[in-house]
Amino acid sequence: MHEVHVGEDLRGRNEEIAGENRKILREKGIVSFNLMSAPGAGKTSLLVSTIPLLRERSRIAVIEGDLQTSRDAERIAALGIEVFQIETGGVCHLDAAMVHSALHALDLDSIDMLFIENVGNLVCPAEFDLGEDARVMLLSVTEGDDKPKKYPLMFTESRLLLLNKIDLLPHVEFDLEKAKGEALDINPKLEIREISCKTGKGIEEWIGWIERFRETSGGS
Amino acid sequence: MHEVHVGEDLRGRNEEIAGENRKILREKGIVSFNLMSAPGAGKTSLLVSTIPLLRERSRIAVIEGDLQTSRDAERIAALGIEVFQIETGGVCHLDAAMVHSALHALDLDSIDMLFIENVGNLVCPAEFDLGEDARVMLLSVTEGDDKPKKYPLMFTESRLLLLNKIDLLPHVEFDLEKAKGEALDINPKLEIREISCKTGKGIEEWIGWIERFRETSGGS
């Protein structure tokens, strides 16, 4: 059973490296976001929608986590920004050490905002602090409104929940108010926004959230 | 990193218990299926669509794996069949020992078909043999046609791939032929069916697959 065998030592070591990552990022004035979701919820599509709007004001880099393939990294690299690809080789989440290696490889003096796209998995990524400033999770409405109570840890650990693919609401059974209510039962501080990467709905509000977060968190 | 710390000992122990489970199930003439997918791909909905059609000819039980909550188990129990609920308490997959406990609790003399619904996760469940006769994975078309190469192990380990939610094809960008081609590149023996639990399309063919599998695998 994974949870048991990760063990306190490994967790302690992850926390330690996450702390180093956080220190490096703060010293460089870089605000950082860890994007987490189930497979196919739209993390890469969100970045593809977001980066062109943010890059006027921000110098952005992306760390892309994938089990296999560099497909997502290629989609991001096509935007002309710096991307560091982590192929985990089957490991189901990023950890702080993987991100630490990426931080050594990126030109941190030339960026002020970092997105870390985690492996598509609604369970394990939530257990690993990467040293990010905020965790942002995506839940696609096609996944069902019962997910908060079934996968509570990720909702507990996230600062912002993006309900994605709301363009598909007419075609699926998904009760927005139920999903929001259950997410807030688990984490009353969770902020929630509705978006569609396909139609662009809510993307401006998400950009606004990022900008406000940066101002209040003291990032550059 | 989970994969490393599962370790050979733990894997060996899992294989051993999976072998015991397989022996028990064969002695009782029970054919068994391990259903795997990302969260929200429709495993429970598939069972809810399937069981009423199968129960005329088969005596069915279900083992339901969930991190938290018994919601899925309640949906299945409402059909009036025997359900054993495993709450993993945060562990991101079922293992053979969990299923072994369930086999002790179920009345194995009164059933001839067992469905095991794994935890919603496209990564870790594929690493754990439960002693089942066949692994069946669901991929919802809302998850994207790039998933086979990004999450190859589950495609390698499955005998049947059900492409679910095909009623949503007009509303999403999903290239069926690309997804099938890439899945077959990974596992040339993989059988593939298209289904919609919502409209019922393909459910008869899936039932037919189950019946043929049972006949050819020598189950009762």
Greatest contact between two chains: A-B, 46 and 46 residues
The helix count of chain A comes to 8
* N-to-C SSE string of chain A, H for helix and E for strand: HEHEHEHEEHHEHEH
Annotation, overall tally of beta strands of chain A: 7
Q: How much of the polypeptide of chain A forms β-strand, as a percent range?
A: 15-25%
Q: Between the first and last Cα atoms of chain A, what is the distance in angstroms?
A: 42 Å
Note the overall shape of chain A.
Answer: globular
What's the assembly state of these chains? homodimer
Rg measurement of chain A, Å = 17 Å
Which strand order does the major sheet of chain A show? Answer: 3-2-4-1-5-6-7
Low-confidence stretches of chain A: 1-7
Percentage of residues in helical conformation of chain A: 40-55%
Global mean pLDDT of chain A: 92
What structural class results from the helix and strand content of chain A?
Answer: alpha/beta
Largest sheet of chain A: 7 strands, parallel
Could you describe the 3D structure shown?
2 copies of one chain form a homodimer. The N and C termini of chain A lie far apart (about 40 Å). The first copy, chain A, is globular and about 45 Å long. Helix content of chain A is about 40%, strand content about 20%. Mean pLDDT of chain A is about 90; it is low at about 1-5. In chain A, strands 3-2-4-1-5-6-7 form a 7-stranded parallel β-sheet, with helices on both faces. In chain A, β6 (about 160-165), α7 (about 175-185) and β7 form a beta-alpha-beta unit. By secondary structure, chain A is of the alpha/beta class. In chain A, α1 (about 1-25) packs parallel to α4 (about 95-105) and α2 packs across α8. Chain A contains 8 helices and 7 strands, in the order αβαβαβαββααβαβα. The relative contact order of chain A is 0.18. Chains A and B meet through α1 and α5 of A and α1 and α5 of B.
